[in-house]
NUDIX hydrolase (Kibdelosporangium philippinense), 130 residues
Amino acid sequence: MTAEKDLVYGWITRADKILFIRRDPAVFLGGRWELPGGTVEPGEPAEAAAVREIAEETGLKVQIVSERATSSWPDINGKPLTINATIFDVTEDGQAQVVLNPGEHDEYAWLTPAEAAERELPEHVRRILP
């Protein structure tokens, strides 16, 4: 039986730009740009996990608006693991400063979809760029 890992992400926009954060070079998939988010803990609702992970990674307090996209794929290292990702549209007050979690992410950027497409992105994010 293949284990499953659930991930959640937030699609946060300000002035038609989306917030992306870059993984620290020392961590798994270092240097890759991604949406803020992370792993759903056992028994945790996906929406609550997204709010928690976004706060941990960016310092932003968000509210879930709707589900934007879902996708699944096998573990990239060949483990018997299926990764399930949900991306939520979220809102935030638009005034708070982004504060990254040191050691996890080293940079952030507000990017248009075209600008984001030029960065190294996970495939499940690249597929949903408008």
